[in-house]
Amino acid sequence: MEQVIDFLSKLFSADDWPPRWVCGEWSAFHGWLYIFSDIAIWLAYFVIPAIIIFFIQKRQNIPFLPVFWLFGAFIILCGSTHLMDALMFWWPGYRLSAVLRLLTALVSLATAFALIRDLPKLITERPDDELKTYQLEKKLKSYELEIQDLRKQLNSKSD
């Protein structure tokens, strides 16, 4: 328990490690390639949830909404680990990185379990458009039968 308390008390301290630039022999090209790649991945991981949130706000009655939120949290946390990796070239916040990775792991597992739990329902769920089409087709058949009955009545009266 002492290690946990020590870990948490130094969560934002980077005094125990050197920045990544001075660990090993990074060429400028290799270091900046790593940094730019991680920042690009982080940016994509933050744009994707923004698109998901936009989608959720534009659609009504989205089934399995909690799964969308889990995906958003999962993607944001994945992106945060990449941002941390880029920052470590200057600020070696390995403790904070470890906490972000733990949160990412927990949310990833929760997302996977939610998908496994909901997959049978997702497979059998009819999209709203398909359900509306089915209901309209059912009404149309009902109207066609009613028209046929009316024609029979008309034909029997004219005879």
Automatic annotation (TrEMBL):
<keyword id="KW-0479">Metal-binding</keyword>
<dbReference type="GO" id="GO:0051740">
    <property type="term" value="F:ethylene binding"/>
</dbReference>
<feature type="transmembrane region" description="Helical">
    <location>
        <begin position="31"/>
        <end position="56"/>
    </location>
</feature>
<keyword id="KW-0547">Nucleotide-binding</keyword>
<dbReference type="InterPro" id="IPR058544">
    <property type="entry name" value="ETR1_N"/>
</dbReference>
<keyword id="KW-0808">Transferase</keyword>
<feature type="transmembrane region" description="Helical">
    <location>
        <begin position="68"/>
        <end position="92"/>
    </location>
</feature>
<dbReference type="GO" id="GO:0038199">
    <property type="term" value="F:ethylene receptor activity"/>
</dbReference>
<feature type="domain" description="Ethylene receptor 1-like N-terminal">
    <location>
        <begin position="34"/>
        <end position="123"/>
    </location>
</feature>
<keyword id="KW-0067">ATP-binding</keyword>
<dbReference type="GO" id="GO:0016740">
    <property type="term" value="F:transferase activity"/>
</dbReference>
<keyword id="KW-0472">Membrane</keyword>
<keyword id="KW-1133">Transmembrane helix</keyword>
<protein>
    <recommendedName>
        <fullName>Ethylene receptor 1-like N-terminal domain-containing protein</fullName>
    </recommendedName>
</protein>
<keyword id="KW-0812">Transmembrane</keyword>
<feature type="transmembrane region" description="Helical">
    <location>
        <begin position="98"/>
        <end position="116"/>
    </location>
</feature>
<dbReference type="GO" id="GO:0005524">
    <property type="term" value="F:ATP binding"/>
</dbReference>
<dbReference type="Pfam" id="PF25487">
    <property type="entry name" value="ETR1_N"/>
</dbReference>
<dbReference type="GO" id="GO:0046872">
    <property type="term" value="F:metal ion binding"/>
</dbReference>
